[in-house]
Amino acid sequence: MTNDFTIKHLAENSRVQQITLSAKVIKTFKEAVTSNWDVQSIEYKPFLRFTIADILDDACDYKLGEKLLDILKNRDQAAFVINYEKTNLDFKTSDEEKDFYVLFSTAISHLIGLPNHDSMYGSFYARFVVENKDNSDSYLRQAHRRLELHNDGTYVNERTDYVLMMKMDEQNMEGGETALLHIDDWQELDKFYQHPIAKQPILWGAPKSKNVSSKVSHPIFFEEDKDNKPHMLFIDQFAEPKNREQGLYLYEMGTSLEAEKNAFSFELEIGSMVVIHNHCWLHGREKFQDHPNLKRELLRQRGHFTR
């Protein structure tokens, strides 16, 4: 604990660390960044993304970035929720506030690594909306069904060590909580990790909305960490099994994950973000309650560690 930020366990699961930045830190960051740059600036000039990360770290006496990495690389934790003390930041419009969220999340992501290009949105981050009706080709925007537990980055060549998910806005919302499961808490992990197909390459593709036409091949348990514990890359929607054995293995795995009692859900506040080690945690989303004017806007950044 410092004067700049506090850390405590998330009430729903003690693995997840809940970090709250002080009003002083967030005000210092906002004034220094928004007086000089806007979202277009950091989109056009990648080095500015590290500049605003440094401004945030400096406001925390260069202790924040180190702590965030320590948490993510500690397998027993490997996840945090980050927000800030509510104070009057003098946002004149909703769009101005959302632009600040992009800048703030970018500072966090560049303190822990380097975001990959998100082809779905066409930038180093993605913004997307979940509404009451959706005709997309994946479950991401479908409000009235559960988004099953999965890892990100299954169908791309870039390494995806971390995933950052931020809630930017919501209206007429009930449900839709963030769902998480640490793979070490998965009671049937050993059953699937020791299976003959566990390290067998599987083909992974993506629907057209992802704007990724190539396919990749890799096992679900694609590596072990420094303690010889498994890292995962799995999503049920985008796997393309080549035979019945692979298909049944994937089906049984998905069924096991969705039945896991150690999975948990929690509500994320507007302006807050959850960041996870993508190979130690699976994530998903509970379904929303029906409402004709349901709307939630989300931001995503996912990338790799650089140190």
Rg, rounded, reads 19 Å
Termini Cα gap:
24 Å
Task: Indicate the overall shape.
Answer: globular
* CATH second-level architecture: 4-Layer Sandwich
Query: Which bin fits the share of residues in helices?
Result: 25-40%
Structural class, by secondary structure, is alpha+beta
Q: CATH homologous superfamily? A: Clavaminate synthase-like
Q: How many distinct helices?
A: 7
Let me know the average pLDDT: 93
Question: What do these coordinates show?
Answer:
This protein starts with a strand and ends with a strand. The strands form 4 sheets. Strands 1, 2, 3, 4, 5, 7, 15 and 17 form an 8-stranded mixed β-sheet that branches. A 4-stranded antiparallel β-sheet has the order 6-16-8-14, covered by helices on one side. The mean pLDDT is 93. By secondary structure, it is α+β, with helices and mostly antiparallel strands. A hairpin with a 2-residue loop joins strand 1 and strand 2. 26% of the residues lie in helices and 28% in strands. The protein has helices at 23-34, 39-44, 46-59, 64-72, 94-112, 189-193, 244-259; strands spanning 5-10, 13-21, 79-84, 114-115, 126-131, 147-150, 162-171, 178-182, 202-204, 216-218, 221-224, 230-232, 239-240, 264-266, 273-277, 281-285, 295-304. The protein has one domain (5-182, 260-304): Clavaminate synthase-like (Double-stranded beta-helix, 4-Layer Sandwich), CATH 3.60.130. The longest helix has 19 residues, at 94-112.
